[in-house]
Design brief:
The chain contains eleven helices and 14 strands. The protein is α+β, with helices and mostly antiparallel strands and 421 residues long. α6 crosses α7 and α7 runs antiparallel to α10. The longest helix is centred in the C-terminal third of the chain and has 33 residues.
């Protein structure tokens, strides 16, 4: 569905955006932190410089001799990697693609393009709008909200954009076109918070060849309905990490997402105690997810069919853990750090899978509401780009499209030097 009127793009409403992280080497990310620690230990325990270089996998951006500053907010060493022998950098949880929660070694020496400006504003107050990439046949949500720092990758390998909600730590300086909230408040005759605008965008965003568009209604009742729906979508995609603002009922009373009683997925046949499941399948009649000899049910068909970026979400999630190709990459070669991975299926992965099934099932149930909201918005009164330009909201000034200067915390430069920002 596309807007009937001249709807603004998300990139116009949230003008500062960041390109996806470019890791440069797949072994710095894994589904569990123990694997990352084992990979780090293998790297620093390499017998000689040649072995260490082979394991590291140098690129044009990073070698064992690169001099690199710390990532903001991360207390990692800054000495050159050819002589590194200390403990593993503490892994951090990130969002890989739109739905996969992975672990990353947040060491700037290991990552080709880590986007320090994104890490500089990451804290417990930050939320992100992860914009999907344009595809010939778009599938899945155009925008997904995240409370974790996202890498911005698409399951199909096409890059999108990452829009932080705030330009400074502590929930300061919303990343919104100047004057946008005031204009909306006047037209809707009610206060509009930054999180309300983000919730609205998540609820009504639409794919377009020129990027994701966000129709803006001028109907107060429709706005309230859309913000309420968007808040529930944010609560789901952040796994309960987002709570609505004051005066609104909580979508889940602060809990993590759960299906209603009788519809909650359970392990009906245990996964093997040894080894990894060889394949993933689905039994539509029994609503059962099949992982080798393991069986989880009920799994609604909406969760199984849920796609993002042209890829089935559950299939991609499984492939990244079972050792098969994922994200369009080739399987890890023998002897590489990427090939160092669990040989058995951890219990934590089963818990994560049950939660992901729940999130996808509930998102699929809400999709008809999202479609209906988009149709009503398209047919009703809107604040189109012409009005936004006449009010001086668009185009946003160049300063709003650049990262803000954040000078209130220490960052260590290469070899322990003080970093000047």
């Amino acid at each position: 569905m596309t807007a009937k009127q001249d709807a603004p793009r998300l990139s116009e409403l949230m003008p500062w955006s960041v390109a996806p992280l470019r890791l440069g080497r797949s072994w710095v990310m894994a589904p569990d932190p123990a694997t990352l620690r084992a990979r780090w230990r293998a790297l620093v325990d390499a017998a000689d410089a040649t072995d260490r270089e082979r394991l590291f996998r140098p690129s044009r951006a990073r070698t064992l001799h690169s001099a690199v500053a710390q990532l903001p907010g991360q207390a990692t060493p800054t000495g050159r990697l050819y002589r590194a022998d200390g403990p593993c950098p503490e892994p951090v949880r990130i969002l890989h693609g739109p739905f996969d929660q992975q672990w990353l070694l947040p060491d700037h020496r290991l990552i080709d393009t880590a986007r320090p400006e994104l890490w500089r504003v990451a804290d417990e107050r930050q939320l992100y709008a992860v914009e999907s990439a344009p595809l010939p046949q778009p599938s899945g949500p155009p925008v997904v909200g995240s409370a974790l720092l996202p890498d911005g990758r698409s399951p199909a390998g096409r890059p999108g954009r990452i829009h932080p909600l705030y330009r400074r730590p502590g929930g300061q300086e919303p990343n919104l076109a100047p004057g946008l909230l005031a204009l909306l408040a006047r037209r809707l005759d009610r206060p509009v918070a930054p999180t309300g605008l983000l919730a609205w965008a998540v609820a009504v965003a639409q794919h377009s060849p020129d990027g994701v568009v966000v129709p803006l209604t001028a109907d107060p009742e429709l706005w309230e309905r859309g913000v309420g729906l968007g808040e529930r979508l944010l609560w789901l995609t952040t796994r309960g990490g987002y709570a609505p603002g004051p005066g609104r009922p909580s979508p889940g009373s602060g809990d993590r997402p759960r299906m209603p009683g009788g519809r909650r997925p359970y392990v009906r046949a245990a996964l093997p105690a040894r080894g990894l499941p060889a394949d993933l399948g689905y039994d539509p009649e029994e609503e059962a997810l099949l992982l080798g000899g393991g069986r989880i049910a009920p799994v609604p068909v909406g969760a199984w069919d849920f796609c993002a970026g042209g890829v089935r979400v559950l299939a991609a999630w499984f492939a990244r853990r079972a050792g098969g190709p994922a994200d369009g990459a080739e399987p890890a070669e023998a002897g590489s750090l990427a090939a160092l991975r669990p040989v058995d299926w951890p219990q934590e992965w089963t818990s994560e899978l049950l939660e992901l099934i729940t999130v996808l099932a509930l998102l699929a149930e809400l999709e008809p509401q999202r479609v209906a909201l988009g149709a009503r918005t398209a047919d009703g009164r809107q604040l189109d780009r012409t009005e936004l330009r006449a009010a001086g909201v668009l185009p946003a000034p160049l300063s709003a499209r650049r990262p803000a200067s954040v000078l209130d915390h220490h960052e260590e430069g290469p070899e322990g030097q003080f970093a000047l920002l």
